Each structure stands twice: as C-alpha cells, then as structure tokens.
Amino acid sequence: GVDAMKARFGSSAWTGIKRAVKAGVRIETASSGKLLPEFFSLAHKERRHWATRQHEPQWLAQMRYRMVDGESKWQRVASHLGERFRVTIAWHGEKPAAAGIVILNGNAHGMRAAMDPEIRKIGASHLLNLVVLEDACAAGARWFNLGESATPGASDFKASFGAVPVTVPELSFERLPFSKSAALARETVKRLIGFRPAHQGNGQP
C-alpha cells in the first residue's frame, strides 16, 4: 500500500520531492507509447551530455543508443502491452526534466529512465519516482523492480526510496565467444577515442 511504501522513504527522497513541488514540476503519465517521443528527446539530450563528459564522439554515442535501445523498439513493445505500458514525464515549464518507462503486469518494472542533467538539482526525478510508485500501488503491485544500477549514485538514489539490492546471476550460453570478442572490441575503441568514464548521477526510477 501507499502508506507502507512511503514509510520506507529516506530524508533525501523527501527533500528532493519537496524541492520539485516548490519548483513547479508537474507529472504526466500516458500508456501505449503516447509520450515515447518526449522520453527519447530527453534521453538523447542526456546521452549527448554524458558523451561529452566521457570524451566520446556524439555520433558514436547516438549510434550505440539507437542500435541497442531505439525508439522503434519501444513503440513495438508499447503496441503489444497497451495499458500495461506507462511513460511518465516530469515537466518543468514546457521542458521535460525527467522521464521513466514502467511496465505494469502484476508487479511493476522500471525499464528505462532519463533526466535533463542541466536541471537535475530541482528534484524532478524524485517527484517522478513518487508518482510511479503510487501508480504501481494503485494497480495492485506488491513489488517494484527498479532495474539495474550502473553506478553507486544510482544505487543510493533508489535506496532513498526504500529499495534493497538484489544480486542476480547473469548467464550467457554461446557456441562461439561473441561476448568476449565484443568486450575486447569495446575496450579497443575506448582506448582509441580516449574514452574517460564519468560518474553518472541518479535520476533512475
């Protein structure tokens, strides 16, 4: 229930929520992929920001993103799931400040998240997380999978909303060592372009 869920929130979560409310952030949720263009517009902006921070060519960052996680893929997913597929946008004025994709199917799964790095301090991601968690409670979900955390910052952000880490084994069965070859190719390209890992912040629903 909503009350039990909110009782798990830490002080940093509430601070971010109050900051977003004070900044006039408003939340919009739609199903069936209606808001996917807005989500990907924000995701591309965030990708450009981190590509610059990591000394990665913009064309390479965007190409990687489109190949693995393009909008057309998610439009197909949305068309199959209908009302179970939700996109939530946190608007600051007329600009999307944070966004998330959630699938509700018994329980809830936060599939993707994006945020505007330029205005990350207004707490839009915090308010967005409150709303998607409330939405999951209203749908009868008992569990909400917040997804993998690529950085300690993302993990800490989720923990502020009461999340607990779960270790999940990942297995790969291949006749040929494709994964090892792909990893070697990625490391080679990173060295050639002078790739520098940057600590990405929170903002993950």
Using brief descriptors, characterize the structure shown.
disordered C terminus; globular; alpha+beta; five-stranded mixed beta sheet
Summed up, what is this model?
By secondary structure, the protein is of the alpha+beta class.
Structure characterization notes:
This protein has 205 residues and is α+β, with helices and mostly antiparallel strands. The chain has helices at 2-6, 11-22, 36-53, 58-69, 71-81, 124-138, 152-159, 178-193, and strands at residues 26-31, 85-92, 95-105, 107-115, 144-145. The chain has a 5-stranded mixed β-sheet with strand order 1-2-3-4-5. Helix 3 (36-53) packs across helix 4. The protein is globular and about 50 Å long. The protein starts with a helix and ends in a 12-residue tail after the last helix. Mean pLDDT is 85; it is low at 200-205.
Strand proportion, as a percent range, falls in 15-25%
What class would the helix/strand composition place it in? alpha+beta
The main pleated sheet reads as:
5 strands, mixed
Q: Helix segment count?
A: 8
What average pLDDT do the residues reach?
A: 85
Low-confidence stretches: 200-205
Net shape: globular
Name the helicity range: 40-55%
Which radius of gyration do the C-alpha atoms yield? 18 Å
Distance between the termini: 18 Å
Care to count the β-strands? 5
Spatial sequence of strands, sheet with the most strands: 1-2-3-4-5
The succession of helices and strands, N to C, reads HHEHHHEEEHEHH
